[in-house]
Amino acid sequence: MDIQRELKQPARWKKLSYVLPVVVLALGYYAVQRFTGDASYFVDRETVVTAKVEQGDFQVNVRATGVLKPAEIRWVAAQVSGRVEQVLVKAGAEVTVGQLLLKLSNPQLQRELEQARWELEAARAENNATIVALESQLVELDNQVVSAELGHQAEKLKLDAETLLIEQGNATVSQLDYQKSQLAVKREQQRWQAARQKALKMRAEIAATKAAQTARSGLLENNLRRMQEQVDALQVRADKAGVVQQISLELGEQVSLGGSIALLASQQNLYAELQVPEVRVQDIQIGQSVTLDTRNNEITGTVARIDPAVENGMVLVDVALPASLPADARPELTVDAQIQVSHLSNTLYVRRPTYAPKSTQIQLYKLDEAGRFAHKTAVALGQVSVNRVQIVSGLSVGDEVIISDSSDWQDHAEIKLN
What's this model's pTM, rounded to 2 decimal places? Predict the structure, then answer.
């Protein structure tokens, strides 16, 4: 005989036991979803740099580095050969016109100078003796002229007296004596004229001799002056005021004629030589304003020249500077420069991200309103300045984006900032 069992109904909570895990899983998923969202990458907020999009005037600048260069620079060359005996200045020293830079020694030049001086003195003494001798001869000739003139006058007086007696019919004077007197007058006149010609010739000879002596003395004086200048050139002096950039010689070193001694540069007339990346030089034009930072002062100049050549990815740009410069402006001083390329009015811009080429489209991570998540957003860029970039599209005023390096999570569309 079968015994009928009494069936017991299971408790209600046991019937609903499967619901609890589902609820727990749902709550967990909600909590995880609320915490992580759609983010597939987590980033420490302290490691990122963000910036907000702004709107307003945007100055487009190109940054460059360079040095101040002297517009007037020249080498001081050796006028004579010699050995460096003393160096009186060093590179960086300010010198004035005529200031002694260094001393050279050359004993041969000293000996040649003394010889030239003695040659000039000997020539002067010889010239003086020659002129004295010639003038003595001239005195004798002048005496002969006077004697001949007196003889002529005496014979002329005698002839005149005899002529008068003959005209009076006085027979005391014979015709023969009268003719002899006429001949004597002619003879004395010729002797007087000959003496005068000799005296004139002597004066001409003395004048020619003096001219020749003057020319020879001038030649010797020029030679002495040249030798003196060469000896003086052993004292090398600055021919212009400026700053010594370089001294090419050391103590005891031999320098030949025309050899380089010192490089002098004017400290007042300077220009800036900048190195601009070739990718930015296309924005630069002559006449644009440039601000130079010397670490202590700022100098405003203008672009004066753009080198057509590219070297190591850089282009040289010369900047003209005003005549009045700060006291710390010196040749070879390193400066930072900002070249003002253009000015944009009422445009969107943001601090320049790590990678932001001009006129391109890049991907930036834009933060949500809470600042917990960042979504990858396509952003079109325009003009690029030193530390800001123009936003053409993709962002609005007030949007906050990550501008630091995001290459580690570029494959993720959304990240979470912890």
Answer: 0.56
